């Protein structure tokens, strides 16, 4: 009995990992995501390892999760994986207030982001 299985939202040669509630603005996160788009996963991991951006550590964790999903859940070869898509979305924004001069207030916004990484298995062109 039971419910029918939902169809996959991505192709059979792809795997996905998603991180939500990352404490960084989407603009800053997109700068790191641009580093890895379209690269082989080994090269992308090396780029993130030596990046000086704080959020690169979390992006590396998401990429490693996508690689593990590809290997364990979808039986893809990790040596032929490429970062197909890495896209950033907005999440909630915490609003905080700071006292300013003459009884005024300054609004401080602390944004959160979410990151989705899709890796794809490609055949090597010989």
Automatic annotation (TrEMBL):
One of its GO terms (molecular function) is rRNA binding. GO terms for biological process: translation. Keywords: Ribonucleoprotein, Ribosomal protein, RNA-binding, rRNA-binding. GO terms for cellular component: cytosolic large ribosomal subunit. It comes from the Bacteria. Transmembrane segments: none annotated. The keyword Chloroplast does not apply. InterPro entries: Ribosomal_uL22 (IPR001063), Ribosomal_uL22_bac/chlpt-type (IPR005727), Ribosomal_uL22_bac/org-type (IPR047867), Ribosomal_uL22_sf (IPR036394). The globular domain of the protein is located near the polypeptide exit tunnel on the outside of the subunit, while an extended beta-hairpin is found that lines the wall of the exit tunnel in the center of the 70S ribosome. NCBIfam families: rplV_bact. Part of the 50S ribosomal subunit. Belongs to the universal ribosomal protein uL22 family. This is Large ribosomal subunit protein uL22. The gene is rplV.
